[in-house]
Specification:
Length: 335
């Protein structure tokens, strides 16, 4: 009887030891798993973060685009950029800006050119996402304007001008002082003189120099045949029923020109980082070049997508996109 009690006691001690051993194993295993999870969490939280360095005036629009899209690089940060500030050192990502790389300067003029931009859609490692070209707008039932629409013998008011906007006047001047494709008349004094006499030399509406964009657009929809040279985004801001009445064409060049360019505002993406970091951005760069993404970007800004397979918003946006795709060069700087 005593032996049985001793054996039972030994078995109980042995079982207790086994249980304690199992508990210790479980405790150590749990601790190891916890440490591993903690390490993974730290690694996850310390992953490199892509920086979108976005011009302050378009930062809200870019935020909306990222929210509505599936961005490949999920860990990112958006910082507003002011006064053309350089990209922060040690970071990687993209500058999103309407002030991209410096183009080819035309000496003695405010013009800079970007040759073959509609074909390459890249210039000095800056990628074109969307474009806001200047087009000649009219009621779509009216004829496309010939070059003779500039003649001062035409009825006054056949041309419309938002003359209190300096960009509008300088856009006209850069067309009028382009004497050949990619060649502009030089001389600051001449440009100033032509700006001063613009509304006298051409058949703009009376008091054109006092008109704002808001004031000039209602004149487009009157019964007379009139033409307004304006950015596409200006036309996109009109009411839907008014947009349905509009047609667009490029500024008519002289008949002996074999090519043409467009004035346009451009939305650029400038890739930033060292070689290894840029390799990490390849998938995001492909995302930026996607036609559907560029369509979203263009519609957010009321522009057109740079990619030829991007979908234009309406008929005059389609006309503007064709003008962009067939252009030999883009210029900026005059506005």
């Amino acid at each position: 009887m005593a032996n049985r009690k001793v054996k039972a006691k030994k078995m109980k001690v042995s079982n207790d030891l086994k249980k304690n051993k199992i508990k210790l194993i479980l405790i150590f295993s749990g601790s190891a798993v916890s440490v591993a999870l903690l390490v993974l969490l730290i690694l996850f939280l310390s992953r490199p973060r892509l920086l979108w360095y976005v011009d302050e005036d378009i930062s809200a629009d870019w935020n909306r685009i990222l929210r509505e899209s599936q961005v490949p690089f999920e860990r990112y940060e958006i910082i507003s950029r002011s006064d053309n500030e350089p990209f922060p050192q040690g970071r990687f990502g993209f500058i999103i800006s309407r002030r991209g790389p410096e183009g080819e300067r035309i000496e003695g003029t405010p013009i800079e050119l970007y040759p073959n931009l509609s074909r390459t859609r890249v210039y000095n490692d800056w990628f074109v996402l969307a474009v806001d070209p200047w087009m000649v707008f009219r009621k779509h039932r009216d004829p496309v304007p010939p070059r003779s629409f500039l003649d001062n013998t035409n009825q006054r008011g056949s041309l419309l001008l938002a003359g209190n906007d300096k960009a509008s006047k300088l856009a006209w001047l850069s067309q009028l002082l382009q004497n050949n494709p990619r060649s502009f008349t030089a001389g600051a004094e001449l440009w100033d003189e032509k700006e001063f006499t613009l509304t006298v030399d051409y058949p703009f509406q009376s008091g054109a120099s006092q008109y704002s964009w808001i004031q000039v657009w209602p004149l487009v929809f009157r019964s007379e045949t009139v033409y307004l040279y304006a950015p596409l985004s200006q036309a996109r801001r009109q009411r839907p029923e008014q947009m349905g009445l509009l047609g667009a064409s490029r500024f008519p060049e002289p008949p002996n020109w074999g090519s043409y360019g467009l004035q346009a505002d451009i939305l650029w993406a400038g890739i930033q980082g060292n070689e290894k970091q840029r390799e990490m951005l390849e998938e995001t760069l492909e995302w930026l070049a996607n036609p559907q993404v560029q369509t979203l970007i263009a519609n957010t800004f009321q522009w057109i997508p740079a990619h030829p397979s991007g979908a234009p918003y309406n008929s005059f946006s389609s006309d503007s996109q064709m003008a962009w795709l067939r252009s030999s060069y883009i210029w900026q700087g005059a506005y």
